[in-house]
């Protein structure tokens, strides 16, 4: 559901090259994209397609070799530390493996307190901070009182991923990049995670970019889908259009390779 | 066609931890697989399906120990036999097992053909190198794999090719039953399809007589298996044909599981995904009675007393204190509520 | 932290290593407090080949004479006395002479001391020419004859001092063959557990002091090497780019040239005068960091792409904070292991340098390597003076062994896959 037709992120000819000379690899090959505020999009690709590299470029964790990235209409400039910090107030990420997203030597309170500090609440009194953290945990159906002073290894995968979402709740970025957020979560808890992300989108108009290899998930959750192969976007469009009526052979193959339950899954086209 | 290939009666196996605690990962499990059929085992991580697969082979590694029950392969009881005897005469020849990410089992410093020679030698089958090579070629040809693979090292093969090679080798001695534990999870979608096709062909080409397929991916199970068994916390909670299990599940856990399936098919964008709150119980101290009761929305006080498997006609079974009609009523009411929202 | 400590001491190997190492350290610290000997003090004067006094209890003879003796009647006293004067080789020599002098062999019984000595006394003639006897052998028999005189007698010895005025000997007392003194009443008794070395120094005291110095050198060098390696490895691994290239350049340079060669060159160029134990420690430290830097860099490389580091960046953490809180704790266990290994290696390096004569100044400090150096230079092995070098070897081995045992034990803690 598009809130309004404001373009929040757009890219022209984004390219990333690794290495020199004979070991040169083209990880991302002149990618164009346009994101509207409040949209949910998915970038679908198999491993090695360059989707993780692309996501890191959008996040600003990897440098861009060629091409331009515009945030809210203006060319993104993250050359200084200060500008980078400003940018990261508006864009955040959730990663695939909940276990490795945490520093195992810190209690999980540290993660949430960090977010409060980023939002300028570093000087707030302790009670107010605790109140904020309680609110965030409530949003993800967890009780802060049960989690405080615990180390990451004492929690389950689903709980840890939900605290990552609580982190996003506290930070309220304009764009969220979710890199395979449910692939390491049990099927039963998947719905909860997706529901919470959608709730955030509805509450604060957050734009979500899903990075995934699961085309079923992409279809279920997104408005727009981009299919990525070997660094290029080979097909893009609304979820219905791309998945129910694919045009490119790669997309067709990708969809036919996924097991179906309502339609016949044709194994002969291997 | 109705000869029973594998019969498991009341199998219980346990892990003994460093602190000497007993964890019954497989708790009184019974199942039957007939010739020509494939049984699927569904469940989430920690439910005991991989442990069940290991236990079925009769070859136990510490900390896994056999406690009680029978495993009968084609009429032959293999439970409690000497491990060496099991290794030589049962593993690979009667029952074969493909573990998760089996492609990592290939020794990176030896060629595939050496691996196959080892398999024969380990079973006291002495053939000349040429004989082994010919047999291997024949096997690969039937399964549609290129013969060049034999002279290659594992590092020269792609993930999908490695997995298919390992599967081919695991059936080279024509076992009666094949147990595949997540054979395609570590692969990309296209390789996955090739592996699944190959598994289905194994039965068609006569390499194996029956198969047990274990995975947490439900659409896969639906397409590959004839019957599905759902496991939760070490116990079987439902047994049904594939179609019944996916489209008409009875046990509340199965219902939740099937309700969380996402497939890229038309009309599925607006489906409400089912979420089951909570986590599976710790098997050190499983809850008394129904192990799913703490998370079940229909649970009543009686659920914590012992709950047995209810058998219905047609081989269906489920573990719940409610009768079939009671459950269907609950589900119908729920569907109506959802439709109104 | 507490949990980690509990796990660490759970490992059997670590505990054994730790106990051995602690015992060595405790000995080094407590020994000089109890036994106040100057480790470098020369206590015996030697000939040109070194004094090398064998281990034993040294009783001052002059003082033992002055102490009131006790009478002890021991049965085997006489036999022992004779046996110490007439070794089996001596008896065979006597028999040979007698045979050559014409006594029939069956009359000679080497086990019967009395008859043997009787025969000798009656027949020995220093001027008798025996065919085929060398001059040296003749002298030998003359000396043997002298030492054998009075072996069988049971008389004691007379003590006499010179009269200061007349110059004549005046009898002051006698020493009977049954006189014994209690060693603890003798004022000057010295226990030389490991004898003396070539200079005449008490090896035991010297060994303890040397172990202390070597350990100090090892720890200082180890700390320096690990710190340099850690800092360079972190910089190269995390910052990458030009910093990485520069650090790798130096690492490769130092890898290609064997460390011992560099050590020899630097040590030699510093010159004998400036070489003290701390200087040597610093030299070793500055050349041994290479391996640590490489290993830390590799670990940091793999860590910097982890999700928690990415999240830290996204949370606006500055570079130094990320290195301190997100990288350093993850490699801490590895660095501790590296430190232990470096200490062990440094001690061995110092020993090698000292054996070559390029270690600390010899007359000011004692180190394990220096003791080895002196022992070999003064040919202790070929002289059979095992106490000058064997104990040193054992101590070096124990130190290395205990440190490596601790290292293996820690390995088990931090890599769960290795736990039994």
What's the arrangement of secondary structure elements?
The complex is a heterotrimer of chains A (270), B (341) and C (420).
Chain A: E1 7-18, E2 25-36, E3 40-44, H1 51-59, E4 66-71, E5 74-75, H2 81-87, E6 91-94, H3 108-121, H4 126-139, H5 144-147, H6 157-171, E7 175-179, H7 187-204, E8 207-212, H8 215-221, E9 224-229, E10 232-238, H9 239-244, H10 249-256
Parallel strand pairs in A: 3-8, 3-9, 6-7, 7-8
Antiparallel strand pairs in A: 1-2, 1-4, 4-5, 9-10
Helix pairs in contact in A: 3-6, 4-6, 6-7
Chain B: E1 4-16, E2 22-34, E3 38-42, H1 49-56, E4 64-73, E5 76-77, H2 83-90, E6 95-98, H3 112-122, H4 129-143, H5 159-170, E7 177-181, H6 189-204, E8 210-215, H7 218-224, E9 227-232, E10 235-241, H8 242-247, H9 252-258, E11 309-311, E12 317-319, H10 324-340
Parallel strand pairs in B: 3-8, 3-9, 6-7, 7-8
Antiparallel strand pairs in B: 1-2, 1-4, 4-5, 9-10, 10-12, 11-12
Helix pairs in contact in B: 3-4, 5-6
Chain C: H1 2-10, H2 12-34, E1 56-59, H3 61-66, E2 70-71, H4 77-85, H5 88-101, H6 113-123, H7 135-148, E3 157-162, E4 169-175, E5 179-180, E6 189-192, H8 203-239, H9 241-256, H10 259-270, H11 277-287, H12 290-303, H13 307-314, H14 319-355, H15 368-377, H16 380-383, H17 390-414
Antiparallel strand pairs in C: 1-6, 2-5, 3-4
Helix pairs in contact in C: 2-8, 2-17, 5-6, 8-9, 8-11, 8-12, 8-14, 8-15, 9-12, 10-11, 12-14, 13-14, 14-15, 14-17, 15-17
């Amino acid at each position: 559901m598009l809130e309004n037709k404001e373009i929040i992120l757009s890219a022209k000819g984004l390219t990333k090259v690794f290495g020199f000379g004979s070991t040169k690899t083209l990880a991302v090959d002149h990618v164009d994209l346009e994101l509207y505020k409040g949209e949910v999009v998915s970038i679908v690709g198999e491993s090695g397609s360059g989707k993780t590299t692309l996501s890191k470029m959008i996040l600003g964790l990897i440098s861009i070799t060629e091409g331009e990235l515009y945030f809210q209409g203006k060319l993104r400039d993250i050359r200084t530390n200060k500008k980078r910090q400003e940018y990261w107030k508006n864009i955040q990420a959730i990663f695939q493996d909940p276990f490795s997203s945490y520093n195992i030597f810190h209690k999980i309170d540290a993660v949430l307190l960090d977010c409060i500090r980023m939002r300028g609440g570093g000087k707030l009194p302790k009670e107010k901070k605790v109140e904020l953290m309680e609110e965030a945990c409530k949003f993800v159906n967890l009780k802060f009182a049960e989690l405080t002073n615990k180390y990451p290894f004492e929690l389950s995968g689903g709980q840890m991923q939900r605290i990552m979402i609580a982190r996003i709740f506290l930070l309220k970025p304009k764009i969220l990049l979710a890199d395979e957020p449910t692939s390491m979560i049990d099927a039963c808890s998947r719905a909860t995670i997706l529901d919470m992300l959608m709730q955030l989108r509805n509450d604060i108009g957050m734009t979500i970019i899903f990075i995934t290899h699961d085309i079923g998930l992409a279809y279920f959750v997104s408005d727009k889908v981009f299919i990525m192969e070997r660094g290029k976007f080979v097909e893009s469009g609304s979820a219905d259009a791309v998945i129910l009526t694919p045009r490119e052979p790669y997309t067709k193959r990708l969809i036919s390779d996924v097991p179906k339950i309502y339609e016949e899954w044709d194994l002969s086209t291997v | 066609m109705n000869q029973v290939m594998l019969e498991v009666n009341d199998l219980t196996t346990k892990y003994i931890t460093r602190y000497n605690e007993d964890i019954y990962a497989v708790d009184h499990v019974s199942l039957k697989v007939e010739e020509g059929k494939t049984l699927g085992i569904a469940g989430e991580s920690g439910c005991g399906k991989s442990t069940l697969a290991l236990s079925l082979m009769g070859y136990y590694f510490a900390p896994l120990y056999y406690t009680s029950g029978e495993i009968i392969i084609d009429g032959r009881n293999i439970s409690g036999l000497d491990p060496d005897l099991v290794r030589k005469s049962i593993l690979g020849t009667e029952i074969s097992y493909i573990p998760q990410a089996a492609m990592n089992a290939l020794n990176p410093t030896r060629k595939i053909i050496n691996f196959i020679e080892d398999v024969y030698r380990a079973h006291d089958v002495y053939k000349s190198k040429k004989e082994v090579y010919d047999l291997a070629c024949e096997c690969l040809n039937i399964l549609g794999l290129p013969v060049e693979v034999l002279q290659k090292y594992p590092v020269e093969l792609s993930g999908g090719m490695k997995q298919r090679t390992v599967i081919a080798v695991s059936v080279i001695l024509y076992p009666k039953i094949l147990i595949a534990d997540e054979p395609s999870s570590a692969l990309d979608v296209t390789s996955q399809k090739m592996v699944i096709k190959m598994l289905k062909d194994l039965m068609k080409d006569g390499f194996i007589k029956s198969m047990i397929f274990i995975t947490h991916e439900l659409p896969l199970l639906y397409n590959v298996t004839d019957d599905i068994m759902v496991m939760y916390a070490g116990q079987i909670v439902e047994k049904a044909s594939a179609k019944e299990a996916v489209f008409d599940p009875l046990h509340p856990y199965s219902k939740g599981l099937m309700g969380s399936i996402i497939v890229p098919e038309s009309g599925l964008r607006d489906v409400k995904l089912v979420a089951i709150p909570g986590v599976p119980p710790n098997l050190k101290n499983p809850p008394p009675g129904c192990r799913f009761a703490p998370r079940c929305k229909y649970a009543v006080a009686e659920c914590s007393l012992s709950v047995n498997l209810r058998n219905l006609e047609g081989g269906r079974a489920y573990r719940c204190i409610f009768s079939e009609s009671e459950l269907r009523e609950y589900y119908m009411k729920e569907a109506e509520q959802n439709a109104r929202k | 932290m507490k949990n980690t400590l509990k796990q660490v001491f759970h490992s059997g190997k670590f505990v054994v290593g730790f106990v051995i190492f602690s015992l060595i350290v405790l000995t080094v610290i407590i020994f000089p407090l109890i036994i106040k000997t100057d480790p470098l003090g020369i206590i015996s004067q030697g000939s040109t080949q070194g004094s090398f006094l064998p281990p034993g209890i040294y009783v001052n003879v002059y003082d033992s004479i002055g102490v009131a003796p006790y009478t002890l009647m021991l049965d085997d006293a006489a036999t022992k006395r004779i046996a110490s004067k007439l070794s089996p080789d001596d008896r065979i020599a006597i028999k040979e002479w007698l045979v050559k002098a014409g006594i029939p062999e069956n009359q000679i019984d080497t086990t019967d001391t009395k008859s043997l000595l009787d025969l000798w006394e009656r027949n020995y003639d220093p001027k008798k020419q025996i065919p085929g006897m060398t001059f040296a052998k003749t002298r030998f028999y003359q000396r043997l004859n002298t030492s054998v005189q009075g072996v069988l007698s049971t008389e004691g010895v007379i003590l006499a001092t010179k009269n200061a005025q007349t110059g004549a000997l005046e009898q002051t007392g006698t020493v009977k063959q049954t006189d014994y003194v209690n060693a603890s009443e003798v004022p000057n008794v010295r226990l030389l557990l490991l004898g003396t070395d070539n200079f005449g120094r008490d090896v035991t005291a010297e060994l303890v002091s040397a172990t202390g110095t070597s350990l100090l050198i090892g720890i200082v060098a180890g700390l320096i090497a690990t710190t340099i390696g850690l800092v360079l490895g972190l910089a190269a691994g995390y910052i990458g780019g030009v910093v990485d290239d520069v650090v790798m350049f130096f690492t490769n340079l130092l890898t290609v040239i064997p460390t011992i060669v560099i050590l020899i060159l630097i040590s030699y160029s510093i010159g004998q005068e400036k070489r003290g134990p701390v200087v040597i420690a610093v030299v070793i430290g500055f050349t041994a960091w290479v391996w640590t830097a490489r290993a830390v860099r590799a670990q940091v490389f793999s860590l910097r792409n982890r999700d928690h580091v990415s999240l830290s960046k996204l949370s606006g953490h500055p570079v130094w904070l990320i290195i301190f809180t997100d990288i350093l704790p993850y490699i801490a266990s590895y660095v501790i292991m590296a430190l232990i290994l470096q200490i062990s290696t440094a001690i061995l390096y110092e020993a090698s340098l000292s054996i070559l004569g390029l270690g600390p100044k010899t007359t000011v400090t004692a180190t394990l390597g220096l003791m080895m150096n002196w022992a070999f230079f003064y040919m202790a092995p070929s002289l059979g003076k095992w106490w000058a070098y064997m104990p040193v070897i054992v101590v070096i081995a124990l130190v290395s062994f205990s440190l490596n045992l601790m290292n293996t034990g820690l390995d088990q803690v931090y890599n769960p896959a290795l736990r039994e």
